[in-house]
Amino acid sequence: MIESLGLNSLYGANNLSKLIAIINSAYKTKEIDDSWVFREFILSLRDLQNHWKTLDRFILIPRNLTVLRGEDSLELEIIDYNGKGIEPDRFTFILDSFHKLHDAIVRILAEKDARLRIAFVDSGSNVLIAFVSKLKVIEFAKRFFSEYWRQIWFSPYQEFN
User: In terms of pTM, does the model score above 0.85?
Assistant: First the structure.
């Protein structure tokens, strides 16, 4: 992990042993602060902190979505089942299908002012999408998915006539 983040110069054994030697040999704190090895270490830590803040601002915080009063969110994960990535056709099919489901639920519940929004998309191997809409619509969608999943899960144990 240290190598993948490019921190091996910061936390490498050679650099840490120099820092320890400077700290042990220093008579006053100013001697440590005046050391270029120590200053470089501090600057590298600041760079790392800035990278973390950037990551936090653009990737982590957006996932902490804010749902307004009268709204709810539903997170849907699109799974990369073959390890080769998610094809654009499959991705757009899922988005379009969820949009159609949302519109059908809106008509069933007569929630005319309900609008579907994507709150965030988090990608990795799988894609996590958070949809936001009116509370009643999202609750209905959650019950729909829960019931649908229950039917799939227990279908081997049910007899069909």
Answer: no
